[in-house]
Amino acid sequence: MVSEHLLQGLVFGFCVALPIGPVSLMCIQRCLSDGVALAAACGLGAASVHGVLAALTGAGAGLLVQAQSDMSAAARVVSALVLAVIGLRAIFSHAPAGAATRGNGIAAAYVSSLMVTGTNPMTLLPYVAAASALSAGAVAGTLTVSLWTLGIVVGTAACYALLIAATRLTCRRAAPEAMARLNIAAGVMMVGCATAVAVGVV
């Protein structure tokens, strides 16, 4: 059924994005320091990568397993560096939290999220399992995979949108000094996350 496969994708995508990880921290920090638009760009960047990975599941588990093996070491370094730079920027920036930074626009936020999501080998793991299910015949057909992919894109985007909305609502009435401290805290967590990515913990 069309609705069934779309719903499966929605649930899968939402659950994949739900744990707090590098992209979630990026969305929170962007929302605190640069506003909702740039935070949303981060979420859409991650959703785009998840959509590509979901589409690749149609090629089977072998392709994704090989990609994971090939990119693991170098990709961790790239992902860790991007996270560390953004985190350090949040820690040492003297710009008021909540004010959009003109020099770091929506395109830059989108691309940075693409890089972090696409170069983090851990992102591939759920799709390796899903590709195994596809190759085993649990799900088959171009239309089915397309609907499942669409559901994943919407599900991941919805999860990040809810996170951004929650961050915005929580901090809406916070004093500028509190916002600045939260922004620094988010930056510290991102640097810690960058270290964890570099050593293979996440």
* Beta-strand percent range: under 5%
Query: What is the molecular shape?
Result: globular
Largest sheet at a glance? none
Q: How many helical stretches?
A: 8
Percentage of helical residues?
over 70%
Task: Describe the protein's architecture and organization.
With 202 residues, the chain is an all-alpha fold. Helices cover 79% and strands 0% of the residues. The chain contains eight helices and no strands. It has helices at 2-17, 22-33, 36-56, 61-92, 106-119, 125-135, 142-171, 176-199. The longest helix has 32 residues, at 61-92. The mean pLDDT is 79.
Write the layout of secondary structure elements.
Layout: H1 2-17, H2 22-33, H3 36-56, H4 61-92, H5 106-119, H6 125-135, H7 142-171, H8 176-199
Give a quick set of tags describing it:
202 residues, mainly alpha, 8 helices, globular
Quick recap of the structure?
The chain is mainly alpha-helical.
